DNA sequence: GATGAATGAGACTTCATTCAT
DNA sequence: CATGAATGAAGTCTCATTCAT
């Protein structure tokens, strides 16, 4: 069955292209990114990319989808074994921190797609956002079930939590804070979410 | 005194270029934006732009600075006459909503600069972010002075407020909510800031 | 004797490739025609074509030869059973009409080879033209033998007859006339050949 | 008035591009022709062509129109001062001979457009054909007026004359005859037109 | 023999920038 | 100062051909 080997090779190559594409797109943005460079980095011929992706746009979109799956998986896995709401939200925060620093390529690509100008890219990035919100809403609902929280609009609350969590991480990073420094803010941010600004970080 | 008239003309042309540049850059992003189109829209010759700006990059940067000033002014003016902390934060939120919808061009440009890949653009956008934070820090400090708030790290708090406020507006917009719908969330968002999630919107 | 079967298979495949090549070349011209498409249409693998033909050029040339044989056979068969010169020339004309409409693919390919730019293609097409002329010369000679015609330079006459006959058909088709309309001109054209313009079509 | 100079320069450059384009297209055909080469030959930058023509297709079409005008002018001028029908038709024939040899580039381009596969090119070439027919029809009508000819369908007759004249020249050239040799056939061809094959060339 | 994945040369076209007018 | 014609670098994508399976 050479088919399986081929299938595997094919998938491996696809992954390699996507990985290099993410790096190139993150470094230069969609327009300035160079298909030739991506091919070179992936160790394949210029034309070969077009055997795996329709065109540059398709490559970008496929890469975006791949990244989204990875991120969602990363976020999900983080939350798996935790118990109380405070802890869960802190884990969520730390998951974003880790992504922002260790997968900064894909995070940058995702953000530029979200706030960029290409409608299709934006739509794909928005889909990831909805997935995030769904996960957070689930956390909040369980918190409500456990009596840790009383909240009349879970959707809005989830959006607020996402905005605060993700955006704080990104902004802090942009302002030059290190991964460690930001991680240390986890409790404070969750305090804000649960009890508001005035509450001191005990 | 023809000098003054010339100066005025020059400044007016500069403004016109920047305005059209903002529209074009917002529509297409930095790379895909076309200098020719900008010149045409501004009613000047193709080469004339280079009498006002070094090159495309410089034009983008200048536009970014101009936008930043406008935004800061818009945010500042909104907060001028208000008194209590809750109100002030709600006004801040609404100011962001207005910018996100009525100056969506410049807002998009700003966001793509912030999360984009060009270091110089990012730096400029970051400077705007610091200005936002300074304004918010001021508000919070006055709130503390007035006993409306107790907060041990004003800087971190300001960053949280900015993240939540701005990011909520943008995310909600991206998710398809209307200006009105988002505005109605003002109180809820400020409630979260001041008292945390559990507090019901009274 | 598997050899014969294989030979037959091989020949059949060759024919199939040539048939599809004719269609593709007629549709797109030599350069724009796509080897892949031809292979697909012929129901074989992309690489297989190169087991039958050296390269694209060779395929085109082989196809041209095949077409030429078919055309000559078509023209010959048409003239087989006819008797008097007038009739024979009319049949010739109608044979061209039929080819131009029912084998328009190959006719177009032939014309573009004849007036195209590739020397080798042109030579091949010229060979077909010589065959046509030989056939027409034969007709004229028999006409002369039968006393239906007096003509001092058969070669030149044959070329004139070919030019008029074939070119009239093609031009009329290009100008939008239908197969029927052109067929109805058969007598008129032959009248011109035999008696000149002034003679009315009786 | 630098405008006039500019206008002249512009027109001169346009002509130069078209001339080189004709040569390149005649040499290689539409697809294989190279825009870069044309630019080089015309002594201008690669991008400059696109200031004069939309794209390759537009360049080809413009060149085709230019050629058509030149040919029509050439044919017309030839017929200007002649008197009797026989002479006129001989002049027409010789005009085609001259074009086929001295403007062989444009003639080849025209024929490949006429029998090629691109609809737009074909349409343009067909327009030239109609112009030819109109001119010939005029000649025949005057011949009829002068009693040199009796002919019930001038249009069909004109098409026959064109087919025979032009196609004879082209076919003879393709068969390797020289300009002189073909020119010597002028009388014979016109004899055929006027009196049919049997009439000896007196 | 048959296949089709991989290759890379090559072409069109765009557009920021320059510079003569 | 203003202009816009000219430039040419650079990039995406196609496709004939090869070769390992």
Automatic annotation (TrEMBL), chains A, B, C, D:
Residues 34-53 bind DNA. GO terms for molecular function: DNA-binding transcription factor activity; transcription cis-regulatory region binding. It comes from Reticulibacter mediterranei. InterPro entries: Homeodomain-like_sf, HTH-type_TetR-like_transc_reg, HTH_TetR, KstR2_TetR_C, Tet_transcr_reg_TetR-rel_C_sf. This is TetR family transcriptional regulator. It comes from the Bacteria. Keywords: DNA-binding, Transcription, Transcription regulation. Residues 11-71 form the HTH tetR-type domain. Gene3D superfamilies: Homeodomain-like, Tetracycline Repressor, domain 2. PROSITE patterns: HTH_TETR_2 (PS50977).
């Amino acid at each position: 069955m050479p088919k399986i080997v081929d299938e595997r090779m094919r998938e491996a190559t696809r992954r390699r292209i996507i990985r290099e594409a993410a790096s190139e797109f993150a470094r230069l943005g969609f327009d300035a990114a160079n298909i030739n460079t991506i091919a070179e980095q992936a160790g394949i011929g210029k034309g070969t990319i077009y055997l795996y992706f329709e065109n540059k746009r398709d490559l970008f979109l496929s890469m975006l989808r791949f990244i989204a799956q990875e991120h969602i998986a990363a976020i999900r896995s983080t939350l798996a074994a935790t118990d109380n709401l405070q802890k869960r939200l802190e884990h969520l925060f730390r998951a974003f921190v880790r992504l922002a620093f260790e997968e900064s390529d894909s995070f940058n690509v995702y953000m530029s797609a979200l706030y960029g100008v290409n409608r299709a890219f934006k739509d794909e990035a928005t889909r990831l956002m909805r997935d995030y919100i769904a996960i957070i809403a689930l956390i909040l609902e369980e918190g409500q079930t456990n009596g840790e929280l009383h909240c009349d609009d879970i959707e809005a609350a989830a959006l607020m939590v996402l905005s605060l969590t993700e955006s704080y991480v990104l902004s802090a990073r942009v302002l030059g804070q290190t991964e460690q420094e930001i991680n240390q803010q986890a409790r404070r941010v969750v305090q804000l979410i649960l009890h508001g600004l005035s509450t001191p970080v005990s």
